[in-house]
Amino acid sequence: MSTTRIDPASLPGRPCSMAAALQLVGERWAMLAVREVVLGNHRFTEIARKTGAPTDRLAKRLRELVDAGIVERRPLGEGGGRDGYFLTAAGRDLVPVIQALMAWGDQWAVSSPTRQLRHRDHDLVSAVVCASCGEAVNDADVVFRVDGATSSESSWIEDGSRSL
């Protein structure tokens, strides 16, 4: 199954891959369902219980995620004839996004983190690193480009105070 592709120009506002991505996974129950599949919960009942989503909404979101190519339904392999939800390549590529959202939420959205991500024998501290040069990415070093040329727009923030 292929992943749904959206023409960014068809979206309202600034044409942008972020807007297209949010069209696919930006609804609350969608990302929480993906989180649960990442954590190894493949059954609908487990996903519903761990997200707290109303089952009708969750069923709709999971269908949309399947249609978008982010998760797939396949047999659980337990001999019971039941299907489960599993990440596709596109879904696996959301793992760092989920980790970043959890880290942001720990810092800015909750009074006290309820979960801690671990990397081997220590707490995970994520950083964005450029795969081409290996350097840590700072927002001041990133330039927004349109159609291969440096954009005359210096920012997503209207006052021009940021380069991204």
TrEMBL record:
It comes from the Bacteria. Keywords: DNA-binding, Transcription, Transcription regulation. Residues 16-113 form the HTH hxlR-type domain. It holds the Pfam family HxlR. The keyword Transcription applies. InterPro entries: HTH_HxlR, WH-like_DNA-bd_sf, WH_DNA-bd_sf. SUPFAM superfamilies: Winged helix' DNA-binding domain. This is Winged helix-turn-helix transcriptional regulator. It comes from Pseudonocardia yunnanensis. The lineage of its organism: Bacteria, Bacillati, Actinomycetota, Actinomycetes, Pseudonocardiales.
